[in-house]
Amino acid sequence: MMLSPDQPDSDHPWAQSDAESVLNDMKVGCVSDEPGDGDGKTRALAPQTLSREEKRRRRRATAKYRSAHATRERIRVEAFNVAFAELRKLLPTLPPDKKLSKIEILRLAICYISYLNHVLDV
């Protein structure tokens, strides 16, 4: 690969910010020094096949995937917190508006269910 001063920097593999993608491009997109069809052109080697884990890792590294994952996680946590708030409303505490941690809510729910079972059995 011959470098010329009039080439923009973005055409060079080292101009990319992601070091892993640069190394991968160097491995996969290697150019042979042998002439191709006799016209002086070089030919690229066939890209190596990636394992399932490597493909998954690359997909997860994209900004779009990370953004979608963060959105799903926010929705999951919000649903989790709503469920705890609804459970908290059903539990008797003094004062009624006392802030409880999630573990306190679960322990109080266990005790309350146990109490209700005891009342039904008597």
Description:
This protein has 122 residues and is mainly α. It is 55% helix and 7% strand. The chain has a two-stranded antiparallel sheet. It is elongated, with a radius of gyration of 30 Å. The termini are far apart.
SSE layout and pairing:
Blueprint: H1 19-28, E1 31-35, E2 42-44, H2 52-60, H3 63-90, H4 102-121
Antiparallel strand pairs: 1-2
Short description:
This protein is mainly alpha-helical and 122 residues long. The chain has helices spanning 19-28, 52-60, 63-90, 102-121; strands spanning 31-35, 42-44.
β-strand percent reads: 5-15%
Q: Which percent range fits the helix content?
A: 40-55%
Structural class: mainly alpha
The major beta sheet can be summarized as: 2 strands, antiparallel
Q: Measure the end-to-end span.
A: 88 Å
Radius of gyration: 30 Å
Net shape:
elongated
The count of helical stretches stands at 4
Helix and strand run = HEEHHH
State mean pLDDT (0 to 100 scale).
76
Unreliable runs: 12-17, 29-38
Strand segment count: 2
Strand order of the largest sheet: 1-2
What attributes does this structure have?
mainly alpha, 55% helix, elongated
